[in-house]
Amino acid sequence: MPPAYPKAIVFDLDYTLWPCWCDTHISMPLKFISHSEVEDSYGMRLRLYKDVEMIIKELKDNDVYIISASRTATPYIAKELLQRFHVSGRPLIEFFDSMQWGQGSKVKHITKAAKELKLESSLEKGEFILFDDEYRNRDVLSINCEFAHVDERKGLDRKVFEKALKIWHHNHKN
């Protein structure tokens, strides 16, 4: 029986893991409220979408590589958010094996992460899934990366996660 998880999961950040664009909605500095909530300089409070922590922990518990791919123009804010939010008592940033940020397509980000992690053959075999709120990033299908659309109003949730795993499993049966 094939594994329940692909080799790598790729997450967009904005409107996938948290409900804002960190480069336009967040004003520094950030204030620590708790390991699951921060507040920016204007008093806007920010939390991860409700199922994100559980999903991240599950992936790490099953030895899945976790990659971030984001077009953020403010990587320092994204990095600080990932350092402030915690999963199982550890900063979220520690759960990521590769972080590919900046302008350009997610195809470029994912290809670069696969090379960095020496997972090129896993990518070729279709062992990657991208979770993203923007349909334009479906172009990752061209590099054999599965695409899972995330509704920006709900963010990454259990239903979307499990549906993507089922689709990936069905599409990559031997």
Automatic annotation (TrEMBL):
Top-level division of the source organism's lineage: Eukaryota
Pfam families: Acid_PPase
GO molecular function, one term: acid phosphatase activity
Gene3D superfamilies, sorted: HAD superfamily/HAD-like
Database matches in PANTHER family: MAGNESIUM-DEPENDENT PHOSPHATASE 1, MAGNESIUM-DEPENDENT PHOSPHATASE 1 MDP1
Protein name: Piso0_003258 protein
Species of provenance: Pichia sorbitophila (strain ATCC MYA-4447 / BCRC 22081 / CBS 7064 / NBRC 10061 / NRRL Y-12695) (Hybrid yeast)
The gene coding this protein: Piso0_003258
